[in-house]
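User: Can you help me understand a structure? I only have the sequence.
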Amino acid sequence: MLIIKKVIEIKTKRSGQVSEQANIDDQVQLSWFDMQKPNLSAVSNKGINFIVKAKFTHLHDQDILTCEDGYLIEVTRAKDEIYQLEFIDALTFAKAAYEIGNRHQPICITTNKITVLVDIALEDIISALQKNKQVTVLKDTGYFKPNGKSHHSH
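Assistant: Let's start by predicting it. Here is the structure, written out as tokens:
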């Protein structure tokens, strides 16, 4: 029989809501994308299935999830699969940023660089950029941090 725990409260160590010495029962490692979901089902490191319905917020590294039965699960951040795109010319940079934005994908823009999550919705754009000698495309893993509130719904 599968038992699913329901998370009833989210607290964080960062704000002092939970002490550093709290008895944490378990951990779960989540990607940036999963941490943004208001409704999430996941499996902890110890194999515990749980669900979260986080109204008006999303999860953060070191959040503590309190289940109905008092079971405490600490959230840890997983590395994401990302593309790092480095541009030589501003026009190619602007076009790529525009195209990615049109796909409503989260994006991190810095000087001459764009970082995006690996996503099937971007494969055609990435493929075209890989053929462009003005662009360096690197597939890597890392902690994705988009600009602003770049992933939203309409």
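Now, to help you interpret it: The first helix runs from residue 32 to 35. The chain has three helices and ten strands. Let me know which part you'd like to focus on.
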